[in-house]
């Protein structure tokens, strides 16, 4: 079990360091000219001028507080650390002080269980697509930064969130947290494999708070073997996961764990077998 207090303390210290206007001016100046590994260091005097501080003692004090955590001294001056750029991007992406004006979204898609029109919502940073006519479909819900709505229609935003989720699922399944790069743990919920209203697989980050659950097929939509076999029988793999032809999953062996997923498409049937890591053991198509 994680010790929450020891985990929280460094976090509190890191956030507390930002609680001063001069420090934020210093970071702002450093992040303005950031070009990844090619970032040119800003010399001391130039950084002090950009931060609009005239007293060098005061400037030194605040720069000293940021050093190590958010600012690194290198030959020729100062550069922001990876923590500074990550935090900056998180703030830009989520625009914490700005309300989202799109809470209800138009979805051009139908419920896979009852064919009713689906309803899109955006609340607490989650973009969700649900069926209001039945409770047989699990729905779709994934974190989506507010930035994702800029220059996108409702449909485009939903499509972007779906694509984002698909890529994150692929990364998480491969053993890497899409947010912090730490290792992940895959948990197959054996009781839920055959159900449509519960996630059959849950993947959790071993370090940060990332957790995601889904049907098995959603985790496999970027697997090259799965893509080529589904395309071979004429299935468009780019459509929403819930718009794919009906699929069924069943446990075929417990030790070693093997799950079979069957997808039917107009006379053809694709059969996949995956193991406990969701690695594809075999893919077949029959006509
Ligand atoms: Zn429905
Ligand atoms: Zn993580």
TrEMBL record:
<protein>
    <submittedName>
        <fullName>Uncharacterized protein</fullName>
    </submittedName>
</protein>
<dbReference type="Pfam" id="PF24042">
    <property type="entry name" value="DUF7351"/>
</dbReference>
<dbReference type="Pfam" id="PF24038">
    <property type="entry name" value="DUF7347"/>
</dbReference>
<dbReference type="InterPro" id="IPR055771">
    <property type="entry name" value="DUF7347"/>
</dbReference>
<feature type="domain" description="DUF7351">
    <location>
        <begin position="108"/>
        <end position="280"/>
    </location>
</feature>
<dbReference type="InterPro" id="IPR055775">
    <property type="entry name" value="DUF7351"/>
</dbReference>
<feature type="domain" description="DUF7347">
    <location>
        <begin position="12"/>
        <end position="91"/>
    </location>
</feature>
